[in-house]
Design brief:
The complex is a heterodimer. By secondary structure, chain A is mainly alpha-helical. Chain A has nine helices and four strands. In chain A, strand 1 (81-85) and strand 2 (88-91) form a beta hairpin. In chain B, 78% of the residues lie in helices and 0% in strands. By secondary structure, chain B is mostly helical. Classes of the chains: A mainly alpha, B mainly alpha.
């Protein structure tokens, strides 16, 4: 089972989820919510990336620590002074705020990592193809061109090696001139081709009518359902946020809204929202294994 | 009555309504909302440029040409196998010089956006699009109508300062708003100072590429333009 269940929803659903998750993680600096964000984004990132996901998470840890300890050096306000650095106070409040800022950064990086796996180039052009037709056509052409050009680069390099002009093991200067020559050849070659492509496109009627784009994605009943659920949960979170149940300030004095009573409802809505892709992924994995055993 | 062009309208709406509204509403939001506000601001700034491009109804030839230049700017990393020497900026600048500010902007912005599909999108994507696009536009603007002579040393000097003082700091802004706990003067200074060595190394590699590759690439582009009679409405420079 290599498919992610959430990725099978319509691109609009995927896009909405990530916009909601990322914007809310930047706006809400309440520790409980941040912790939920770290856990949900971390699990989903690992589910999407498998073992190689640990590498990214391992790289994020030192960055997290660095951002945490550096904040009190710039921000000296706070009541509890831990010690002094060059005569400037290093306060507990600023340190806690550093933890908060660093976790926002980490959560954002992780959600972005998930976004890259879920919202691929074709999904993006499907979403915005009608809004910016020329630009999305450009994007599609670039996506196709890049592997093509990499192949051509290899071909030019091979041809140069065959006539004894290979750059293997040469000095830096030789490497540079060889690279530049290859790049020049590549440009001249592909640009000639581009004019042909352009003329061919025009001959086939490009630009004579409004462009429509083909997509394989359709909004099904399940997509509408998921969209409603996501919007409902987001609405609840926004409502509670306006009500002040997610406010937290650190400097100069700590004041964090308690997560209890009615506020628990907002927190639960936030957690459910963030965990939807993870739950779908795990559910799919379980179903897959059950049906495999039935065979 | 003369009809107002759609792109002009978009520019006016963005500058007079959308951006002030974003900044105004941003002051009401709590938390680290200035990151959201700043990123929205950048995205809104991109809208008029994209609208202008769409409104121009670009011809097939021009579209393919831009796509090729973007792809070459991305592939430049593969062709020159020396670490830290990236041809991306140089190629964007030279395209701007050859095809003018508008096309230069599109090539820069699309290069940034498309390359992030290969190397990973991030919160910095809109900033990167703006920075690369602005770089291509500046190159096109400064070298248009022989304002600056098109010889490799001048192009190299332009490339050096454009990366160091224009594109690099614009890119740093995205990290600044994302990582800075509070946007204070001391933090801004230290952040840009931390980014300086990276910008400097990028600027130097741009200079090297401009000196070695500037003239040949410009010749290739000019030759293609002359050979196929592209952008005939622009005076030959």
């Amino acid at each position: 089972m290599r498919q992610d269940a959430f990725s099978n929803y319509h691109p609009a659903v995927n896009f909405l989820f990530f916009v909601g998750a990322i914007v809310s993680c930047v706006m809400i600096q309440h520790p409980a919510y941040l912790l939920a964000g770290v856990i949900a984004s971390g699990i989903y990132y690992l589910l999407l990336n498998g073992r190689s996901g640990w590498k990214t998470i391992g790289a994020l840890v030192p960055l997290f620590l660095f951002l945490t300890v550096i904040n009190p050096l710039f921000n000296t306000s706070g009541v509890t002074v831990l010690f002094r650095v060059f005569g400037r106070p290093y306060t507990l409040e600023a340190l806690l705020y550093g933890v908060c800022v660093a976790s926002i950064f980490v959560v954002m990086m992780l959600w972005m990592g998930c976004y890259n796996k879920v919202l691929t180039g074709d999904k993006f052009t499907c979403l915005f193809g009608n809004l910016i037709p020329s630009v999305s056509l450009l994007l599609v052409m670039v996506f196709r061109m890049v592997p093509n050009l990499i192949r051509k680069t290899g071909q030019i390099g091979g041809a140069r090696r065959a006539i004894g002009k290979g750059a293997g093991g040469a000095s830096l200067k030789q490497k540079l001139t060889a690279g530049v020559t290859i790049l020049g050849t590549l440009t001249a070659w592909t640009l000639e081709g581009s004019v042909m492509t352009g003329d061919s496109m025009r001959a086939r009627g490009y630009g004579t009518a409004k462009r429509r784009s083909f997509t394989v994605y359709r909004m099904t009943a399940a997509d509408w359902g998921m969209l409603t659920v996501l919007l409902g949960l987001l609405g609840t979170v926004v409502g509670f946020a306006i009500g002040g149940s997610m406010t937290a300030t650190f400097v100069p004095q700590r004041s964090i809204a308690p997560v209890s009573g009615i506020n628990l409802l907002g927190f639960a809505a936030y957690c459910i929202y963030l965990l939807i892709p993870t739950v779908l992924h795990i559910q799919e994995a379980i179903w897959w294994n059950i049906s495999r055993y039935r065979i | 009555m003369k009809k107002i062009k759609k792109s002009t309208l978009a520019m006016l709406v963005t500058c007079l309504v959308l951006i002030p509204l974003t900044l105004y509403l941003g002051t009401f939001l709590s938390g680290r909302s200035y990151y959201i506000t700043a990123t929205l601001f950048i995205i809104e700034l991109l809208i008029p440029f994209l609208m202008a491009f769409e409104g121009r109804k670009p011809q097939a030839r021009e579209l393919v040409l831009i796509a090729i230049m973007c792809a070459i700017a991305i592939v430049g990393r593969v062709a020159i196998p020396i670490p830290h020497v990236k041809a991306t900026f140089a190629i964007i600048f030279i395209s701007g010089i050859a095809f003018g500010p508008e096309t230069g902007f599109m090539i820069g912005a699309v290069t940034a956006f498309a390359s992030n599909f290969f190397y990973g999108q991030g919160a910095f994507t809109p900033w990167q699009m703006m920075a690369y696009g602005a770089g291509g536009m500046l190159a096109g603007f400064l070298f248009k109508k022989k304002r600056l002579p098109r010889n490799p040393p001048v192009m190299a000097i332009f490339g050096f300062f454009a990366v160091l003082l224009w594109v690099g700091p614009l890119l740093d802004c995205s990290g600044l708003f994302l990582m800075a706990p509070t946007v204070s003067f001391s933090w801004i200074v230290s952040y840009f100072a931390a980014g300086f060595p990276i910008n400097l190394s990028q600027a130097i590699s741009t200079v090297v590429i401009m000196l070695v590759f500037g003239k040949p690439l410009l010749d290739i582009l000019d030759r293609i333009r002359r050979k196929y009679g592209m952008q005939e409405n622009e005076p030959e420079v």
